[in-house]
Amino acid sequence: MFWVWLILALLAIGIVFALIKFLFAIWFVIVPILLVIAGIFITARFNLFTSKSRGKFIALWAIVSAISITLFTFGIYNSSTATTKSKPEQTASSSKIKISEIKSSSISESTEEESASSSGKDESQLKLGMTKEEIVNLLGEPDSKSDFSWSYGGKDIYFNDYEHLSGGNMGNLVDQVLASGRKSRASASNETNTQKAFAQSFGQKAVDRLQKMPTVYKSTQLDATTMEYMWNSEHGIMIRLDTADRMTNVYLYDSNADYGKGRLLYSGRTIFTSPKVYNFYN
Length: 282
What we know:
Layout: H1 2-20, H2 27-46, H3 54-119, H4 132-139, E1 144-145, E2 149-152, E3 155-159, E4 165-168, H5 173-203, H6 207-211, E5 218-221, E6 226-233, E7 236-243, E8 247-253, E9 261-269
Antiparallel strand pairs: 1-2, 2-3, 3-4, 5-6, 6-7, 7-8, 8-9
Transmembrane segments: 28-46, 58-77
Region (Disordered): 104-126
Keywords: Membrane, Transmembrane, Transmembrane helix
């Protein structure tokens, strides 16, 4: 009886493995073959046909063979069917993927073209200092905006506190900003040189001449050693301080500084009297 139970155990194990590997149809072919081989080996090895339970074993072996043949046939059929079905499914799946990729690619390209066309509308005509209304008339409403920046197709423009265009990366705004910076620096340098020239003229004027023109040059005695003269020139208010050591300094007026002394523009010796002018007649 031991060998009968062993065969039954092998049969049960084979059936379990066949069920577990249901999705892999090849096991329906391999397992029955292994069962048949195992049965033949056990029968030949232990000569079971000579035992007393020969009749029961023959019946059991017939059942095992029938189940093995059934599993074998089912495995071959299932394998061929699965293979046949999987091919068109794979083909259809790959076709769907390709169609999806083509559609997404075309949508992406059209979106990029629309963005490029919307961002390229006359953006070369953008000029620093333009108002928001002028920009809307030129480019239309922005894709997104805040108080100090607008966005068109991924490009940005910026505004100053007065809501005028002050920069951005559209058109040639970058070049305009750089050129404006160079111009501002040059203008500031020219303004400084002009202020120094005016300060020198103011500082080299004689004291008696300043005192003769009180409406132009307002004078104030600050203390026992310092006399102040104030002149509202075309390039800013200037303050001249004459000290007891006969030195004259001219400053650009600064309301936040002591005595209004801002940036020093000129320093030199004090001239008290104008040189005399002699007229010669023939």
